[in-house]
Amino acid sequence: MINIAILASGEGTNALKLLEKAEYLDNICVKTLITDKENVGVLEIAKKYHIPTHTVLRNKLTQVEHEIEIIKLLNSYKVQWIFLAGYMRILSSGFIKRFYDIQIRKSRIINIHPSLLPAYKGLNAFKRAFKDNVQTSGITVHFVNDVLDGGEIIKQQAFHRKEEDTFKDFVTRGKKIEHSIYPEVLELLSKNQLKARMTHENRHNQ
Ligand code: GRF
Question: Is 113 part of the annotated catalytic residue set?
């Protein structure tokens, strides 16, 4: 069994797609969903799927204290992989190191980002790409490392902006892709293809 946790801060449409997919993957168990915000949509979604949820507010905690609370929870559920699904905090390198896997030489933390990385790293990627009138944008699923939105790319898919697209249409196009590729990556993990691919790449690069 592969134990995963989802970390999210918002609406949770990606978390929903991961939970839907996990129901069909026998060896994936979503142990918990953790959020740093109260009253967010993603909490309701997790409850519908009977996933234990935890809200760890930052409040007066330092980043380290906040992350330690989260790590304690992750350890208590024996979480092996973390899927970030709209988690709006940058993880410290200490946190990232805790999930380092020597076999794949990466941390077992995955993120989805609404751009064709390395373009538009950071916040409001949809908005910035739309404002820049890009004709082709996209979605990227990648490993998390110390560089913001800079970890190795696992999957990337482009979409074309139509002339008449409003910002809302543009986001809808992107989100549709998010909702198909993030579950695909979960499936890669369940079939051991993610680890296999990374291990192979590492051997190849030696
Ligand atoms: C998505 O656009 C994702 O790419 C980004 O945060 C957003 C989360 O949306 N990292 P949702 O809460 O999953 O709907």
Answer: yes
